[in-house]
Each structure stands twice: as structure tokens, then as C-alpha cells.
Amino acid sequence: MASPSAGNSDLDADCEQTLMSYEKLDRSSPDLWPEQIPGVSEFAANQSPFSASNFSKEIDDQDDIELLQEFGSLTTPQLMEKVRGLQNLAFKLGLDEAREMTRGKFLNILQKQKRF
Predict the structure, then answer these.
(1) Which residue has the higher pLDDT, 79 or 110?
(2) How close are the terminal C-alpha atoms of the chain, in Å?
(3) Per-residue confidence at 57, pLDDT binned at 50, 70, 90?
(4) Residues 6+ apart with CB under 8 A from 59
(5) How far is CA 78 from the centre of its chain?
(6) pLDDT at site 1
(7) What does the domain layout of the chain look like in residue ranges?
(8) Single GO cellular component annotation (predicted)?
């Protein structure tokens, strides 16, 4: 007698086979797959892939380099926590800005000056 787990794996394999599509899509047709922005494909093909040396040429400040090294040394969970903290900070800054804009509106300091 077959074990229940063997029956489940056969069922999974059958389901997987029914989900497979053997249709071949010809992506060379400009009618079926038009280029979104003319010339982008050629431009992308001519560009070199990103590398650390390309970015290091643009970074001149020592503080920025140290910050990049710090982020590079973080583990994935630590980096996610750092990003989460930055998102929370951005949200709080947005709330503070909204509060100050409302305050300025009530104090009428944002009105345009009338010229006589």
C-alpha cells in the first residue's frame, strides 16, 4: 500500500503538469511587443553593467564612503531594521511638516502679500 505522502507528491506533480504552458512567445514581433520608448533597447545594450568602481568615482565625501561601508557590513535583518527606522523617521518628519503647515495657515503667515 502506498504511503499518503507519496500520493500527495503524485498529486502535486499532476497539478504542476496541468499548470505548465508550452506556448512559445515570439518576442521579435514589434506588433506584439512594442518598444515602450524608442531607442531604449539599443541604449541599454551599449551600457556597461554597474560596478562598484563606477559608483566610487562619484562619491567624494569621506563620510559617504564610511556610511556605505557601514551599510555593507550589516546583515540583512540589520539592514531591514535600518530601513524601517528611516521610513519611520520620514513619516514623523511628514507629520511634523503637516502640523507646521497647518499652524502657518492658521497664523496667516503663508498668505501672499497684497501690493498697493
Answers:
(1) 79
(2) 99
(3) low
(4) 65, 68
(5) 18
(6) 46
(7) 59-115
(8) DRM complex
